[in-house]
Amino acid sequence: MNRIRILLAALAGITFGLATPALAGEVQLASEVKVDRVVREDGRERHVLVPATRVFPGDRLVFSTRYRNGGARPAEHFVVTNPLPAAVRLADDGFGTFEASVDGGRNWGALAALVVPDGKGGSRPAQAADVTQVRWVIAAIPPGGDGVVEYHAVVR
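Above: the chain sequence. Below: its structure as C-alpha cells.
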C-alpha cells in the first residue's frame, strides 16, 4: 500500500520541460492522470476514464497533458517532457507519437532504436518497462492554439 501512496504523490508532482523558455509563461500546461476502468452495462463492456484517486497494481493509467498558447506569437519547437513515475511502466501498447528515453533523459529516440545494459557487460534492446521519460516535440502552436498529448502506463 505504501507503493501506491508514493505513486499517487508522484502523479501529483509531474513536471514538464519546455524547449522554448521565453514562451514558458505564454503556453499553459495542465496534466491529468486517469484510470482506465472496464465497466459492464447491459452485458457489454466499455472503458471509462476515472480520476486516479486510488490505484492498484495492474491498473491501466492514461497520462495526458493539455497545452494552450495564450500568447500573441507562435510557440515553435515546443517540447513537453513527462517522466514516468517509478511505480508505473509504459504500457506495451502505449506508444504514440512521442520519443522515449531509457536513461533519465540523456538520450532520446524511438523505443525500437534504444538499448539498455543487460547486466552481463553487454546490452539488449530496450523494452516498454525500461522507459524513464517520454517527450513530444510540437512543431508549432499558433496563438490561441491548443492540443493534448498522452501516453498509457500500467501500475507495477
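Residues 15-19 have pLDDT under 50 and may be disordered.
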